[in-house]
């Protein structure tokens, strides 16, 4: 199966509004990062797209992650980024993030400045990289629901082959 077909399958698990936001944000980042590697991870918690100058996860500079109710932009070296507008969230030793809710936050001057700062340190490496290449790196067998509770996903007991448990009984 092609990477595009796999990604379409990953996206199909999400609510249409989240898919739309993720696609717009991903398109914006692919315009900003025309060279390098887009690494895709369909993990336990989220669907993530990381952008770096090499195919190594440790070289990812920025990433997008889709959750059931929002999309988040991550800066993998965000703790060391100057953030004059105080947009970055998080308190870890490395990573910071900006929740793209509403999606227009991505186009704000503050976030665009952060993206420019984050990518500037790797400009030479990105410049030497091939045209943006997408690679599906991992797919977790076990995943959290990709839509908010009650968003149309059938309960386990209603799926064919599942027997109701005592908890499902009145």
List the helices and strands and how they pair.
Blueprint: H1 3-11, H2 16-32, E1 37-42, E2 47-52, E3 62-66, E4 71-75, E5 96-99, H3 109-120, H4 123-128, E6 133-139
Characterize the structure shown.
The protein has 170 residues and is α+β, with helices and mostly antiparallel strands. The chain has one domain. It is built from four helices and six strands; from the N terminus they run H-H-E-E-E-E-E-H-H-E. It has a six-stranded mixed beta sheet with strand order 5-4-3-2-1-6, covered by helices on one side. A hairpin with a 4-residue loop joins strand 3 (62-66) and strand 4.
Strand order of the largest sheet: 5-4-3-2-1-6
The portion of residues assigned to helices is: 25-40%
How many angstroms separate the termini?
44 Å
**Which H/E pattern describes the elements?**
HHEEEEEHHE
Tally the helices: what do you get? 4
Total domain modules: 1
Largest sheet: 6 strands, mixed
* Low confidence ranges: 153-170
Q: How would you sum up the global shape?
A: globular
State Rg. 18 Å
Query: What is the tally of beta strands?
Result: 6
* Strand proportion: 15-25%
Mean pLDDT figure: 87
Category by helix and strand content = alpha+beta
In summary, what is this structure?
Helix content is 26%, strand content 19%. With 170 residues, the chain is an alpha+beta fold.
């Amino acid at each position: 199966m092609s990477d595009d077909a796999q990604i379409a399958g990953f996206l199909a698990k999400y609510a249409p509004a989240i898919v739309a936001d993720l696609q717009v944000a991903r398109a914006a980042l692919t315009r900003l990062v025309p060279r390098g590697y887009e690494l895709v991870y369909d993990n336990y918690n989220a669907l993530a797209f990381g952008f770096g100058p090499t195919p190594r996860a440790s070289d990812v500079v920025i990433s997008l992650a889709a959750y059931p109710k929002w999309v988040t932009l991550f800066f993998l070296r965000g703790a060391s980024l100057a953030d004059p507008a105080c947009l970055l969230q998080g308190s870890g030793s490395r990573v910071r993030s900006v929740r793209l809710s509403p999606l227009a936050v991505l186009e704000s001057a503050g976030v665009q400045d952060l993206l420019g700062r984050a990518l500037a340190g790797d400009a030479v490496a990105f410049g030497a990289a091939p045209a943006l290449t997408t690679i599906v790196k991992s797919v977790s067998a076990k995943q959290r629901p990709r839509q908010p509770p009650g968003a149309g996903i059938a309960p386990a007991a209603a799926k064919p082959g599942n027997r109701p448990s005592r908890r499902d009984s009145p």
